[in-house]
Write a structure and sequence with these properties.
By secondary structure, this protein is of the alpha/beta class. It has two domains: about 1-330, pyruvate-formate lyase- activating enzyme, CATH 3.80.30.20; about 370-460, Arc Repressor Mutant, subunit A, CATH 1.10.10.920. About 40% of the residues lie in helices and about 20% in strands. It has helices at about 10-15, 40-55, 85-105, 125-140, 160-170, 185-190, 195-205, 225-240, 270-285, 305-310, 350-360, 370-385, 390-400, 405, 410-420, 440-445, 450-464; strands at about 60-65, 65-70, 80, 110-120, 140-155, 175-180, 210-220, 245-250, 290-295, 295-300, 315, 320, 330, 335-340, 340-345, 365-370, 390, 425, 430. The strands form five sheets. A nine-stranded mixed sheet has the order 9-10-8-7-6-5-4-1-13. A three-stranded antiparallel sheet has the order 14-15-16. A three-stranded antiparallel sheet has the order 17-19-18. Helix 3 crosses helix 11 (about 350-360) and helix 8 (about 225-240) runs parallel beside helix 9. The structure holds iron/sulfur cluster. Iron/sulfur cluster binds next to loops.
């Protein structure tokens, strides 16, 4: 089977198993500054208004619903764990206020080509609340004929009636958070759900005509073994979702409080983690999935796999997308927007979010206006992450630079990755090889000026 030749060896995975950004943006969100406030965001939207009048560019919307009924111990998301349902009622009122406020600064009834509801747990909202939210969005935005409307679904909070309601509201894509089918692993991470209802949901989703169903898995969780994870993958293959996101668990208990409840002794060792990943890649490729990039797989007929083959893959805060590079308006607590050459992030706590909105202020608390250097590097990094190639001439023409001169040090550093067969380099371009796709963020990291500057500072400190 030729696909299996593309599976990276455990040795290669171990050698390139380095922590790094996922590059849903460049610069990454940890570089945003508090000096960037509501007025900067407002100005960026004003500039968009002018530009969109000329180009009629569609908008993507991300709406964050932060509530969860119980905490998963591996969680690193911005969420509020509560069973007090009235908090969602108050939050929706604020969200409605924000939507109206943001819309004032945009062109009249902007056209939306993509909507994603994420969290937290969007299905924490009941049917009436979801319908109301969609109604509010409908009032302020227009939609393209083929608009993608996706929602993250926690199978523990959804049944067939709920799916039918989501479909009736216009959602056409689902993302199911599974993580692992093994009962012991589920208990160790405090996210217990039995497999048969998930199987039913999947079938119902298909019967209802959802165009694409994604399943999230995580490797590196407590008590996972190559054998137990192989069983999970076999169940996944039986479920046959259109897309699979396979994330690696990063244990950072000093940063993420819920992770302190995970017994470190129960975590798979680094070599076992590599085995888990290698086994998962092998199983998914063998089952006929295409490797899309980073941690994403899709069936060859799925829009994401097609976009990859046709060089139309893009990336935004939700990961890979078929939507062309455009503006994203983030709504809700902690949501991030990308408008033109600016990123802006909303208040991260419900208190501050509420405080701003009750004063009728945009809830932007930090962000970044990209410099020319950031824009050039964003083009290079997104080219690598999405198309797997950077043609020097196209960057030179778009940004008026001499590529080999500007990136002399980076090109030098690329040699080591070329030697390992992860990229191919010529005087005209860098191409990520099929094997290199599994390590594409490592290639991108070489062009991340902020990261490289930190590394140099760190090296300097050690020498002193
Ligand atoms: S992983 Fe998802 S469902 Fe679990 S606590 Fe975090 S945000 Fe909530």
């Amino acid at each position: 089977m030729p696909e299996l030749l593309l599976t990276p060896s455990p040795q290669l995975l171990a050698r390139h198993d380095i922590a790094g950004p996922r590059y849903t943006s460049y610069p990454t969100a940890d570089r945003f500054v508090e000096a960037f406030g509501p007025q900067d965001h407002q100005r960026a939207m004003g500039r968009r208004q002018d530009a969109s009048l000329a180009r009629g560019q569609a908008l993507a919307l991300y709406v964050h619903i932060p509530f969860c009924e119980s905490v998963c111990y591996y969680c690193a998301c911005n969420k509020v764990v509560t069973r007090k349902r009235e908090r969602a009622v108050d939050y929706l009122r604020l969200l409605e206020r924000e939507i109206a406020l943001q819309a004032q600064h945009l062109e009249r009834r902007p056209t939306v080509s993509q909507l994603h509801l994420g969290g937290g747990t969007p299905t924490y909202l009941d049917d009436g609340q979801l319908a109301h939210l969609m109604d509010v969005l409908q009032r302020h935005f227009g939609w393209t004929a083929k608009a993608e409307r996706s929602i993250e679904v926690d199978p523990r909070t959804a049944d067939s009636q709920r799916l039918a309601h989501l479909r009736a509201l216009g959602f056409n894509r689902l993302s199911l958070g599974i993580q692992d089918f093994d009962a012991q692993v589920q208990q160790a991470v405090h996210r217990v759900q039995s497999t048969p209802p998930v199987m039913d949901l999947m079938q119902q989703g298909r019967d209802l005509g959802f165009e694409s169903i994604n399943v999230d898995l995580i490797y590196g969780l407590p008590l996972q073994t190559p054998e137990s994870f192989a069983r999970t993958l076999n169940t996944l293959v039986e479920l046959s979702p259109d897309r699979v996101a396979l994330y690696g668990y990063a244990h950072l208990p000093e940063r993420f409080k819920p992770q302190r409840r995970i017994d470190e002794a129960s975590l798979p060792s680094a070599p076992v983690k590599v085995q888990l990943l290698a086994g998962a890649i092998h199983t998914l490729l063998d089952a006929g999935y295409d490797y899309v990039g980073m941690d994403h797989f899709a069936k060859p007929g799925d829009a994401l796999a097609q976009a990859k083959r046709q060089g139309r893959l893009h990336r935004n805060f939700q990961g890979y997308t078929t939507q062309s590079e455009g503006d994203v308006l983030g709504l809700g607590v902690s949501a991030i927007s990308r408008i033109g050459a600016c990123y802006s992030q909303n208040a991260k706590t419900l208190e501050e979010y509420e405080d701003r909105l009750l004063r009728s202020e945009l809830p932007t608390v930090r962000g970044l206006a990209l410099s020319h250097d950031d824009l050039v590097r964003r083009a290079v990094i997104m080219g690598l992450m999405c198309q797997g190639r950077v043609a020097f001439e196209s960057v030179e023409l778009a940004y008026l630079i001499d590529f080999e001169h500007t990136f002399a040090a980076e090109l030098e550093a690329c040699q080591a990755l070329a030697k390992d067969g992860l990229i191919e380099m010529s005087s005209r371009e860098i191409v990520v090889t099929e094997l290199g796709w599994f390590f594409v963020r490592e290639v991108a990291m070489l062009f991340d000026r902020h990261l490289q500057a930190d590394r140099q500072r760190a090296r300097y400190s050690r020498v002193i």
